[in-house]
Amino acid sequence: MPPQSELCPHSQFKQVIRSAFDAAYRRAWYWQRTRQGQQIRRVRQRTVEPVFGSLLQHYGLRRANTKGQAAAHKAMLLSAVAYNLEELLKHQPKRVVSLALALQPASLRLLKRSFEPYLSEKHLLAEYSLN
């Protein structure tokens, strides 16, 4: 590596230019050091970042294997929908079947009349008939 005098000939010390956004980076850094910034960071770590971690690890979003930003956006949306459905299935109530069994025969006849147009096949109507 060449000596410092060759790298920066008119300077007494090395200068590192970070970026045009250095002021914004510093503001964000100072904001994260405040009490309110730390609270927001903790909430984000519990809610948002695990989702991104799951999408990266389990849903293959480390790379977008698509052409174009619109296709990558669609892939991200589909992965987010899959993640949300998976989370929704974890929180489904377990006792739904017992509520359906508790219906009275009159309620069952009403349900049958409501869904009769959709059950046009004869074998389906015979299976659910309440004669």
UniProtKB/TrEMBL annotation:
InterPro entries: Tnp_DDE_dom
Highest taxon in the source lineage: Bacteria
Domain Transposase DDE: 16-88
Pfam families on file: DDE_Tnp_1_6
Name of the protein: Transposase
